[in-house]
TrEMBL record:
<dbReference type="GO" id="GO:0005886">
    <property type="term" value="C:plasma membrane"/>
</dbReference>
<dbReference type="InterPro" id="IPR002781">
    <property type="entry name" value="TM_pro_TauE-like"/>
</dbReference>
<feature type="transmembrane region" description="Helical">
    <location>
        <begin position="228"/>
        <end position="248"/>
    </location>
</feature>
<protein>
    <recommendedName>
        <fullName>Probable membrane transporter protein</fullName>
    </recommendedName>
</protein>
<feature type="transmembrane region" description="Helical">
    <location>
        <begin position="136"/>
        <end position="159"/>
    </location>
</feature>
<keyword id="KW-1003">Cell membrane</keyword>
<keyword id="KW-0812">Transmembrane</keyword>
<dbReference type="Pfam" id="PF01925">
    <property type="entry name" value="TauE"/>
</dbReference>
<keyword id="KW-1133">Transmembrane helix</keyword>
<feature type="transmembrane region" description="Helical">
    <location>
        <begin position="97"/>
        <end position="115"/>
    </location>
</feature>
<dbReference type="InterPro" id="IPR052017">
    <property type="entry name" value="TSUP"/>
</dbReference>
<keyword id="KW-0472">Membrane</keyword>
<feature type="transmembrane region" description="Helical">
    <location>
        <begin position="198"/>
        <end position="216"/>
    </location>
</feature>
<feature type="transmembrane region" description="Helical">
    <location>
        <begin position="74"/>
        <end position="91"/>
    </location>
</feature>
<comment type="similarity">
    <text>Belongs to the 4-toluene sulfonate uptake permease (TSUP) (TC 2.A.102) family.</text>
</comment>
<feature type="transmembrane region" description="Helical">
    <location>
        <begin position="43"/>
        <end position="62"/>
    </location>
</feature>
<keyword id="KW-0813">Transport</keyword>
């Protein structure tokens, strides 16, 4: 019962963290690994569970999504293709190979979180108005990464949306949530047949993500977003170092 309680609390905190600053996967994924779960099963179970948080976030921005529906339609196809491709590659990856990749994936996600404002601003300034083929490719690669690991895809998508000239952050967030839900959803459908989903954890995490996401959204104004983000970034660097040393000694 203790491990189920740990999983529920971790997913609640991850859902709240995603709502306030992002990076919630950096909480739930290592918890599942530390509980003795195979890393690929932990990653897949986490992805399958994430859809509740994405759904509730998307519903919260539904009015803003309508204003950017033309951009949304154009980016759905690369999201679907990339999400499926990433999920396929993950299932075909051996556990030993994935263990080696874990610290680099966590480090990449942490750096994305640390530089998110600068990345988004730079993209808007230097790449605004770029052609859709470039944005299509960027979204496909983002979805590919999202289907494979997923932490930090929202940051990359906000940067991509800046490339097509979306200046309103609420519209961008609405589209980002729909696309994120699409990527997780497509990957999750593929994962359902992989045999890697740990359903005893997944159902608890779905509840935790949903409750945490709702609570985080309601209480976000009471938290200093920069402090939460700083904590998650420091946590991400420590995780990357831990998994690197663990894989090295293994």
């Amino acid at each position: 019962m203790t491990e189920f309680l740990v999983v529920l609390v971790a997913s609640f905190l991850a859902g709240a963290t995603n709502a306030v600053a992002g990076g919630g996967t950096l909480i739930t994924f290592p918890v599942l690994v530390w509980l003795g779960t195979d890393p690929i099963s932990a990653n897949i179970t986490n992805t399958v569970s994430l859809w509740t948080g994405s759904l509730f976030s998307a519903l919260g921005f539904r009015d803003h999504v309508k204003k950017g529906k033309e951009h949304l339609k154009a980016l759905l196809i690369p999201s679907i293709l990339g999400g499926f491709a990433g999920a396929y590659l993950l299932v075909k990856t051996s556990s030993n190979t994935f263990r080696i990749l874990i610290p680099f994936l966590i480090l990449f996600a942490t750096i994305l979180l640390m530089l998110n404002e600068k990345l988004i601003t730079w993209t808007k300034v230097h790449l605004k108005g770029r052609s859709y083929p470039l944005v299509f490719i960027a979204q496909f690669l983002t979805a590919l990464y999202g289907g494979y690991f997923g932490a930090g895809i929202g940051i990359i998508m906000l940067a991509s949306l800046g490339m097509v000239g979306i200046a309103d952050i609420h519209i961008a967030n609405g589209i980002k949530n729909i696309l994120g839900m699409t990527i997780n959803g497509i990957a999750s459908v593929y994962f359902l047949f992989s045999g890697h989903v740990l359903w005893s954890y997944a159902f608890l995490m779905m509840l935790g993500f949903a409750l945490g996401g709702y609570a985080g959204a309601r209480l976000s104004l009471r938290f200093d977003r920069k402090k939460v983000k700083l904590f998650v970034v420091l946590w991400g660097f420590l995780l990357s170092l831990f998994f690197f040393l663990n894989s090295y000694h293994a």
